[in-house]
Amino acid sequence: MRPRYYWIALFCLLAGLVAAPQGDQVRTRVAEGFDQPVGKPDADGYYMSRGFASYHPGEDWNGLGGGNSDLGAPVYVIGNGYVTFARDARMGWGNVVLVRHTFMENGSLATVDSMYAHLDRILVREGQQLTRGQQVGTIGTNRGMYVAHLHFEIRKNLHIGINRSAFARDLTNYWRPGTFISSHRKLPGGGRSAMVVTNTYRIGDSIAPPPADSSAAKSAAGEKTAPVKIPAASPRNFRVNRFEDVGPY
Ligand SMILES: [Zn+2]
User: Fold this and answer.
1) Chain segment 29-61, per-residue pLDDT in tens
2) Which residues are paired to 138 by β-bridges?
3) Contact by Cβ (8 Å): 228, 125
4) How many CA atoms lie within 13 A of 164 on its CB side?
5) Which is deepest, 33, 111, 162, 206, by most CB within 10 Å?
6) How far is the CA of 109 from the centre of ligand 1 (A)?
């Protein structure tokens, strides 16, 4: 290769390494089945106030008591998994937890993300390993924007994160949660662990990192793991319009 092309090739390689998603991997426990995120395992005491339909790529759960009777009620992770996001995403989302799950499907490993939105409190932190049925937070109203409910999604596409509006405004990237759960209650592979990819979606500068002394960090303090290091949000880029990524939620 002529030297000039060598340098061009080297530059392209380095530029690619800088620009490309990091695609890190982390080991997590394989999910041996999935349950509903409220009234575990079967959503006892809850009703689905809004279903999976275009364009609402998730399911909303409310307590049978109606109104805000479910405010502060526990929200549970649907299966073993790894927390990739646990912050206040503001806008229409509020406090959000995203969990990545890997599980056996037709003899090979598949991966999905579960999303728990509008939480009143977040009780887990990014980088935490979760066990099926572990509490991730409590049902909230997103600062009074809604009657208290859980907005819950299961994503096929691992690149969505909290940038839902950047993806097709249809249901192609999502599983119908109730159907997915009922068809994946009991799965092989229990006790195993496997690698899952991380850093597959962007967390914009507008979203502040979780406070170091948050209740989430305290409640998760059982595990002595170093907190995830995330650069501070730039105030200059902070989006004050919380409706920018407008719903429906
Ligand atoms: Zn919703």
Assistant:
1) 999 999 999 999 999 999 999 999 989 999 999
2) 74, 121
3) yes
4) 30
5) 162
6) 28
How large is the C-alpha radius of gyration of the chain?
19
Could you list the beta-strand ranges (E) of the chain. Answer: 25-29, 46-50, 59-63, 74-76, 81-88, 95-105, 108-122, 129-130, 135-139, 150-155, 174-175, 193-197
Residue type, 125: R
pTM of the model: 0.80
- Select from 132, 79, 135, 85 the least CA-distant residue to 110: 79
Please choose, from the candidates 31, 246, 39, the residue with its C-alpha nearest in 3D space to the C-alpha of residue 150: 39
Q: How many CA within 13 A on the CB side of residue 143?
A: 11
DSSP letter at 201 equals S
Centroid of chain to Cα 34: 15
Question: What domains are defined for the chain?
Answer: 22-237 (2.70.70.10)
**In angstroms, what is the span from residue 152 Cα to ligand 1's centroid?**
7
**What's the 141 CA to ligand 1 centre distance in angstroms?**
11
